[in-house]
Design goal:
Structural class: alpha/beta
Order of helices and strands: EEEHEHEHHHHHHEHEHHH
Strand order of the largest sheet: 1-3-2-4-5-6-7
Number of strands: 7
Strand content: 15-25%
Number of helices: 12
Largest sheet: 7 strands, mixed
């Protein structure tokens, strides 16, 4: 008899319809908490979930590959949201899993937001920019502890005290809590039967994709080509941004997420509503 799958560790914020928020590879839910202000005035209960082997959710048993993560997330959604309408957002691998969840629950899902999603599973097939560091700060880098510098340096395209502080706050807790056995199993089976392009085909509810112009992990051009084929999609490729696009350009990403969240929640014209609030009258 197989052992039960691990229960998800979840951090809840706000009230309303469920918005499931899924982090990427090698971090935990803390990575996504930087986005919470985008939804603070919207009718969403944000569910920040730790994937198995990351943060405070126990690892999956073998084989523990990406197909098993997708099945686990669907089971977790059954427990957390049942048949209630919901929306989903994900970063990197979390975006791929979010798209798979949408595919399974298409009629139930009101919208999807993807941050730096891997559109093509095979890295060798991706169109990647010749990215480098846009802004360096040798003094900052020299001041970091070696173990911190080793994880920050490869993913930072804008090296500044404020960028490092966001990375330290959002990424380091999850990086330090990773179960290495879980990531080894995931690396061995990092594939799904479908891809984001398949999962979003003919989806007619709000989609948002935000990418980094200097993202050398998943790029931005494949995502742009996908966005052109979608019925409803807001797309952005942000300069001075790598794979952690929401840490590199937090204000822009939060503004885009707020617009998407309002549309997915059913507000007909969120832009008009915001402009009226700013003017203080009709």
């Amino acid at each position: 008899m197989s052992s039960p799958l691990p229960s998800p560790h979840v951090v809840r914020r706000g009230e309303g319809l469920p918005l499931l928020i899924v982090h990427g590879y090698g971090v935990d839910h803390t990575m996504m908490l930087e986005l919470d202000d985008a939804f603070a005035d919207q009718p969403w209960q944000r569910l920040y979930i730790d994937l198995p082997g990351f943060g405070r959710t126990e690892a999956l048993p073998p084989p523990g590959g990406l197909p098993e993560y997708a099945n686990w997330l669907d089971q977790a959604a059954s427990t957390l949201i049942g048949d209630t309408p919901f929306a989903v957002a994900g970063h990197s691998m979390g975006g791929l899993l979010a798209a798979d969840l949408l595919h399974r629950r298409r009629e139930q899902c009101r919208g999807i937001a993807l941050l730096a999603p891997p559109v093509l599973p095979d890295r060798d097939e991706r169109t990647l920019p010749d990215a480098g560091v846009v802004h360096d700060d040798p003094e900052l880098m020299a001041s970091l502890e070696e173990e911190d510098r080793e994880v920050y340096e490869p993913v930072s395209v804008v090296r500044s005290p404020s960028n490092w502080e966001r990375f330290r706050r959002a990424a380091l807790p999850g990086i330090r809590a990773v179960d290495p056995d879980a990531t080894d199993r995931l690396d061995e089976r990092y594939h799904l039967d479908g891809c984001v392009t398949d999962y979003l085909a003919d989806y007619d509810r709000p989609v948002m994709m935000v990418t980094g112009k200097q993202d050398a992990v998943v790029g931005y051009e494949d995502q742009w080509e996908l966005s052109r084929r979608l019925i409803r999609c807001t797309f952005a490729a942000l300069d001075r941004s790598g794979h952690n696009v929401h840490l590199d350009q937090p204000r822009v990403v939060r503004a885009l997420l707020a617009e998407w969240g309002a549309l997915a929640s059913g507000i007909e014209d969120p832009g008009e509503s915001a402009s009226r609030d700013t003017r203080g009258g009709p």
